[in-house]
Amino acid sequence: MTLAARALAQLATWPDLMKAEPSCGTGQALSSRYGEIAHFHSDRDVDLHLTDRAVRRLAGDLRRFAAAVRVVPGSQWVTVRLDASADVDLLMTLVSVALQAHQNAPDGNGTAATGCNDGRGVGFLRT
């Protein structure tokens, strides 16, 4: 089982998340009642909708994980590269942050105006 498959299976058991079709049309997604949270695009790459406010708040911390997390300027999504078990742990933490960010969005809705990083062609380079 790949790290992404393991993470998806674990996250799908969380009570606030449900499997869904990704709006970008690639891979599998998890959504909450507030909108899309994560897109699993490959065996290694997961786009996570943190919201603009959360990305700004966590910018310094996310830069510390540059090998595993790609922050794209102007995007409310970050891309997490799953290369090790520690990256899955980081993803779990960031999903929790994303759920909280969506619940606390000023308008009660954390949906992004633009698509995920994969859909925009700006995530990690494919290898």
Task: Specify the number of helices.
Answer: 4
Helix content: 25-40%
Annotation, overall tally of beta strands: 6
Oligomer state equals single chain
Reading side by side through the largest sheet, how are the strands ordered? 1-2-3-4-6-5
Major beta sheet summary: 6 strands, antiparallel
Calculate Rg over CA atoms: 13 Å
**Shape field:** globular
Mean pLDDT: 87
> What distance separates the N and C termini?
19 Å
Q: What is the H/E string?
A: HEEEEHEEHH
Low-confidence stretches: none
Secondary-structure-based class equals: alpha+beta
Classify the beta-strand content into a percent band.
15-25%
Q: Could you please describe the fold and organization of this structure?
A:
With 127 residues, the chain is of the alpha+beta class. The chain is built from four helices and six strands. It has helices spanning 3-11, 52-64, 85-103, 117-120; strands spanning 18-20, 28-32, 35-40, 45-49, 69-71, 77-81. It has a six-stranded antiparallel beta sheet with strand order 1-2-3-4-6-5, covered by helices on one side. A hairpin with a 7-residue loop joins strand 1 and strand 2 (28-32). Helix 1 runs parallel beside helix 3 (85-103). The radius of gyration is 13 Å and the shape is globular. The two termini are 19 Å apart. 39% of the residues are buried. The mean pLDDT is 87.
Write a compact overview of the structure shown.
The protein is α+β, with helices and mostly antiparallel strands and 127 residues long.
